Amino acid sequence: MNASRPETNKTIAALILAAGQGTRMGLVPKCLIHLDHQPIILRQIDAFKLAGINDITIVTGFYHEQIETVLSVEPTLHIVRNIAPEQGQQSSVRLGLARMRDDPDVVLIALADQPLINEQDLQELVCAYLCRPVSTEIMYPVVDGQRGNPVLMSAASVKEFLRNENEVTCRKYIDTHASHVYKYSTQNDHFVADLDTQDDLKTLAERTGLSVKF
Questions:
Q1: What domains does the chain contain, in order, with CATH numbers?
Q2: pLDDT at position 102
């Protein structure tokens, strides 16, 4: 078993994917669904900042005008627009990683439709990543056998991924570099909760007791 080691003074940036079409939800921008009168995307941004992650890149695509209008209240954000979002989420991942500002040591890749992610969840992931087994460069949470998000990647793994041909998705890159991946086992189901259908909205409202609406 590989030893683990804590790391400090690492610069961490966030990449939030908000380019999807929301087909199963009825063709709506899922990240603009309001949870307790605040769009989910703004709740996520608040969580990242509270966790000490202020370098935030957001990839928009479908509904970019609506989403970017909402994001205009956060002038420090770095917005990257995917002009071909129909190519799928993985195209947004590659585009976002390629156009991030500066050169962070670690990139945390999150989905914009994860309504329960909060400051403590992000701190949990960062702590687990900084203490990951030696030789691993990528980490994602696993909850009761289910693969979750966000995913964390080192600068080295991001650069190697970007050197691959465009048809190699980030998911495929991770799966074919298993020896460099730390699957972080946790009982925190916030990492596997997302919004795909109208039923998910009802479940979210019941679970949180908060109003959920477009």
A1: 12-203 (3.90.550.10)
A2: 84
